[in-house]
Amino acid sequence: METTIQHPGSILIRTTGAFIVDDVLYEDSSKIPETSDIALPFQTHDISHIAVDIGGSLAKIVYFTSNESTEKIDDFIQFIHKLIKFYKKKVHIMATGGGSVKFYDKLKSDLGVDVTKEDEMECLIVGLDFFITEIPNEVFMYTEQNPMQFVNDRKEIYPYLLVNIGSGVSMIKVTGPSTFTRVGGSSLGGGTLWGLLSLLTDASSYDEMLDNAAQGDNTNVDMLVGDIYGTDYNKIGLKSTTIASSFGKVFNNKFGNSSEERKSHFNPQDISRSLLYAISNNIGQIAYLQAKIHNLKHIYFGGSYIRGHPQTMHTLSYAINFWSQGEKTAYFLRHEGYLGAVGAFLKRQPTGWGRRASSSSDKTQEES
Amino acid sequence: METTIQHPGSILIRTTGAFIVDDVLYEDSSKIPETSDIALPFQTHDISHIAVDIGGSLAKIVYFTSNESTEKIDDFIQFIHKLIKFYKKKVHIMATGGGSVKFYDKLKSDLGVDVTKEDEMECLIVGLDFFITEIPNEVFMYTEQNPMQFVNDRKEIYPYLLVNIGSGVSMIKVTGPSTFTRVGGSSLGGGTLWGLLSLLTDASSYDEMLDNAAQGDNTNVDMLVGDIYGTDYNKIGLKSTTIASSFGKVFNNKFGNSSEERKSHFNPQDISRSLLYAISNNIGQIAYLQAKIHNLKHIYFGGSYIRGHPQTMHTLSYAINFWSQGEKTAYFLRHEGYLGAVGAFLKRQPTGWGRRASSSSDKTQEES
C-alpha cells in the first residue's frame, strides 16, 4: 500500500468481470432492483484512494473495500474522515464536481491528505463509458410493461448524448472515449424541483417529494388541451389530454387573495406530480432537440434527479419517444448518480479507463 | 350596415395607412410607449363584427369603432354584451382560441348573434403578418440601451418562427402568408409563471407579479455556477454568474421543516424574478433550438406573457443571442397579445389579409 500511495496512478483497477451485487435475484421483471455495490472480482491489489463528486446539492463518494460493508451515512465529511481513519490516513482523494474546485483548499487542509481535482465532464464520461461497456445489467430502457429492460453487449456505443441531471442539467455530446463537447444545458433541473417543492409542500426530503408525486393527479393543477378546447385540437395533432400549461389551473381569483388561501385548494401530491412532469418533460424535450441537432440516436440520462423513480423515467422516455417519433432511445442507469465519482475513481490508474479520457486534448468547445 | 350583416365577408377592411395612435410622441427612446389603438384612416364603411380570442387564461377582443373611445373593462362577457347593445344586436362574432371551440354553443346562444369559429394558429399568423407588413412602429428589437428599436420596411419577411406565449407556448414555423406548421411548444408558459407565483407570493395580478420581479434579486434563490465552483467553469465556457440551477439555493434543511417556515427565508420579489428568468430563459432556449433545426433567422415573440415587461424581453433576447451567438434575432410587438384576435377580425373580408391564410390548404402537419 505504501508504494501505491507514494506513486499515484500506479494501481491498475481491474474492471474485467465487474458486476452488480444484487441482494436478490429478480425474476420478476416488473420489480426494479435497488442500486447495489459493484464487485471487481479480479481486483487483487489494495486500492487506497477515494473519489468524491461534490455537486451543487449532493456529494457522492466512491471507494474500494475488500468485501467489508460500511454503514450508510448522512454526513459526507464525517464519512471521509472515517474512511481516512480506516485507511490510516494513507489515502489519496480524487475529487470532481464543482465543489471540488470551490472546496479544494479546505478539503486538502481539513483532511490532511492529497487531493487531485478532476474535470467534472471528463469524469462523467469516463464513468458512463465504464458502466456502458463493463457492467452487465447496468444500462436499461424503461417502459411501463418492462421498467428495467437491460441493454447489454451494445455494439455501437458512440456517438451518444449524455443528459446529466443534478441541481441543473448538462448535455454532453460524446463521439468517442476521449472526445466530448458540452452542447447545452438547462437551469431547470433537480434543484428547481426540490427548491420549488420545499416552498410548496411540507415534504422534508427528495424521496418524500417523489412519494408525493407518485400519489398525485396533475390534472387538478395543469391546464390540459381539453380544458381549453373542450376536445382534441386535431388540426395540429394535440390530444385533449396533452398538458397545455403546467400549473395553468392555479391562477384564479376564486382561490383567494393570499398564497396560503390559494394553496389550500390544491394538495401537495398533485402539486408534486405536476412539477415533476413539468421539469422532466422539459428536460426530455430539450434533450430531444439537442439530439436532433447533433444527430445522436442514443440518449443516456444520468445524475441524482432520477433515483429510479418510475414516473420520472416514464416521463423522460415518453418525451424522447413522442418528440422523436420513436427514432431516438432513452437509456437509464442503475448507478446514475455516480457517473462522476466513479469516473474520478477510475482516473487514478496507469492504463485503461482513466487514461482514455485524460488524453482528450482534442476535444473542442462549442458551447452553442 | 344591414347589407354587411346579411352578407358576411362583404366588407373590405382597408388596412392601408394603418398606424398606432400614440398618446405622446416619444422622443426619448429609453421610454417604452404604452400599447395604443390602431387607426385605419381609409376605413369608410362601418364594421360591425367583433373578434374574440379566448385562450386558456385570458380572452382578447378586437372591434372597430368610428373614433369613439370605450372604457377598459374587466369582464369579457359583459363587455361583449355592451358592444352588442351598442351595435343594436346586429353584430357578427369572429371567434378564435381554444375557448371559442369549447364555448361555441354558449357564445352563440347566450349572445344571440352569429359566431364564426376561426382556427387559432391561422389567426395568429394572419394577425402577425398584418402587424409586420402594415403597421409602422409595431415590431421592435429590444436592447437595454434601446428597449424599443423599431423595425420597419422589412424586405425579407419569410421564413420566420412565431413563439406565441400564452398560458402555454406554441412555436409555429411560417414560410409564407398561407403556409405554416406548428413545430413544437412547451407547457412551461405564462400559466406556469402565474400559477406558481400565486402559490408562492400574495401578488393578486400578473402585473403585480411582474412589478415584484422587477425589484427582485434572483441570486438569493438561484444557484449560480460561481456558487458551486467558486469561480468560472472556463473549460466549458460557463461564467460564474450563469444560473446553474433555478431555485437551487432553496432546498436546504437549515430553512426549516414546513413550506411556510422555508418561505419566510425568501422574499417574494426574489422568487418572482427567479421564476420569470427560469420560464423566459427556457422558452428562449427552446425557441433557439427550434429555429436552428428549421433554419429560421427571425423569431417573433407574441402572446400575453410579455406585456412589454423589460426584463422578460431582455431575458428572451439575451437567450436567443447567447445560444445563437448573434445569428438569430428576437422581435417583439406592441400588440403582442392581440395577434389571434386581430387575425380573426381581419378574416371577415372578401380580399386581403383574411383570404390569404384562409386559402392555406397546403400546410402540412409535422408535429415533431
From TrEMBL, chains A, B:
InterPro entries: ATPase_NBD, Type_II_PanK. GO terms for biological process: coenzyme A biosynthetic process. Gene3D superfamilies: 3.30.420.40, 3.30.420.510. The keyword DNA repair does not apply. GO terms for cellular component: cytosol; nucleus. GO terms for molecular function: ATP binding; pantothenate kinase activity. It comes from the Eukaryota. The keyword Nucleotide-binding applies. Keywords: ATP-binding, Coenzyme A biosynthesis, Nucleotide-binding. NCBIfam families: panK_eukar. This is Fumble. The lineage of its organism: Eukaryota, Fungi, Dikarya, Ascomycota, Saccharomycotina.
